[in-house]
Amino acid sequence: MAEASTAPPDQRVPESIQHSVLAEFAAGVCRDIAGGLLSTTGDDLVPFLEREVGRLRQALEDPFALGEGSEPRHPPVFDRRGRIAVATNPVVSHRNAIAPPMKLVRSGDECEFTVELPLQYQGPPSKLHGGYSAVLLDEALWKAVRVNVSAISFTRELTIGYERPVPLFEPVTVLARVTEVDGRKTFAEGEILAGGEVCSRAHGLWISPRPRE
Amino acid sequence: MAEASTAPPDQRVPESIQHSVLAEFAAGVCRDIAGGLLSTTGDDLVPFLEREVGRLRQALEDPFALGEGSEPRHPPVFDRRGRIAVATNPVVSHRNAIAPPMKLVRSGDECEFTVELPLQYQGPPSKLHGGYSAVLLDEALWKAVRVNVSAISFTRELTIGYERPVPLFEPVTVLARVTEVDGRKTFAEGEILAGGEVCSRAHGLWISPRPRE
Known about the structure:
homodimer; two-stranded antiparallel sheet; six-stranded antiparallel sheet; 2 domains; disordered N terminus; alpha+beta; Thiol Ester Dehydrase, Chain A
């Protein structure tokens, strides 16, 4: 962690743009290595890994060249206590190598995301692992709740219905919306779509904590 | 991919032990980079990444030293058509960098797994992202169905109940068992436990395809 700064909060930056770009670049290389280790075997492994390590080394030799004209998608920010907070979200953060990442393309009454899943998300051949369908839907429904309900809410229950497999290697759409607000309870639902067809559906319940007296 | 071999299947190996160990080592470094990018900021990023790249380079310079005395956990195998098949499972495969990986410690009427989740799985501070609770439970319940029901089954529905957050950075237990078999339908349930307390519960329905006439 960087050392605590004594400058006023509005004159500090949590991290330079170049460092944020480097971190997101490294997360991207990790994604490529993760996928490549599952499609590369035997004598092909060493040259594959040498190429990927070469990309990282080149970035490290001149990290500032990497940042030229680039903007980090999820740079660190200061939290309410003035500490550096990194966007760790494992579904949407560009800095998290296990996040595909899923991208928010529309927000409002309905939230819409798009995502393309590489090989490391595979369950059945060329199809998304069922648990990771739940990952995409949980995140999307939570976002719809967060956008449409003012109180902070926690997931109480989530149900996924599997209708057809979600394909890897092509863009899929994830939709989510709030269906009912009843006091501290919020109900939401959503779908994963590929080629215009629903692959999975979700519905769930979010509850906001009782206000302190 | 390695070139097709003309040797009889039982005289072929999909990959040397050393290569399999290298692939699993590289997946492990990817896990460490994924976590480190979320806890390292600013000027600390370059030295952190240099150390990790150094570990990969050292392994690549002498991949056979890496394999001495090691056994790969998930080496490739030949599938029924004689093709090389890599264990891609994104929850349990040591070769998959997005798998924690979760380890099966007991199989039978009840299946038991153990897993320790690092920072890249974070939702709320120091707690597991809710979608990834579903990942662990989906995989565990599917395993219980697979061990206890002879027909191949596909997930039709999965419900997760969230009772308390799952902690990161400590071993947690995932349990799963079949509760009912009704023709082509199999029902299963399970829990994630930490410190002896249930954090999440799951129940679901798996269906095996109608036999061909």
